[in-house]
Amino acid sequence: MFKTVALAVLMAASCAANAAHNTWDFSYTGFLDEGSGEFLADYTISGSFSGSDSNRDGVLDKSEIFSLVLNGMNFVACAADSNANYHCGTDVFNYRIGGALQFEAGLFGYDNEGYSGGGYSFTSGKSEIDYSYSPNHYMRNARLWTDATHFSITPAWSGSVLPVPEPSTWSMLLIGMGFASFAAIRRRRAAPFRDHTR
C-alpha cells in the first residue's frame, strides 16, 4: 500500500511542479528603416516567451511570464543585473492567447557622469531602436512597424514542462489515489483471513 500511495503522491507532486508554463515562438517580419526610408521586407525580429495563465482569464500579463527572449536575449532574466547605471528588463507585457501581443522591453546604460551610454529597445507595434552616444558621437538606428509588418506566433509546449492541469484532472488523480488505497487495504485485511482457513 505504501508503495502505491507514495507513487501517487510523487505523480501529484511532479504534476504540480511541472504544470508551470507554456512557450510561444513569435516573429515580426518587414520593417521601415527610419534613416533611409527603405522598407526592409526580409528584416525579422524573432523571439519567444513562456508563462502560465494562472488566473485563467485568457491573457498573459507581465506577472505571469517567466521569460521573454528577443533576438537571443532574455529580457525577464536580465532584470536581476540592473543597477544605478544599467537597466534591463520587460516593462510592459500583455498577450491575449490566440490574439494580440504587446510588449516593451530593452536595456540601456551610461557612465557615472552620463557623458556616454547606449541602449536597445523593443516596443511592439512601434519600433526597434538601438542607439549610442558620447561627447563626440551620436548614433541611432530604428526599424519601424508598418501596416505591412507581418506577425506570426506558434503555440508550443515547452519541452520540459506539462500543460497546467484542469481542476477535473486533480479530482481524477485524488479519486484514483483513494481507490488504490482502498484496494490495498482490502488486500492486506483479506490476506490473514485466507491464511487462517488453511
Automatic annotation (TrEMBL):
Designated name of the protein: Ice-binding protein C-terminal domain-containing protein
Entries under InterPro entries matching the protein: EF_Hand_1_Ca_BS, Ice-binding_C
Ice-binding protein C-terminal domain boundaries: 163-188
Pfam families, A to Z: PEP-CTERM
Membrane-spanning ranges: none
Keyword Signal recorded: yes
Keyword Ribosomal protein attached: no
UniProt signal peptide: 1-19
UniProt KW keywords: Signal
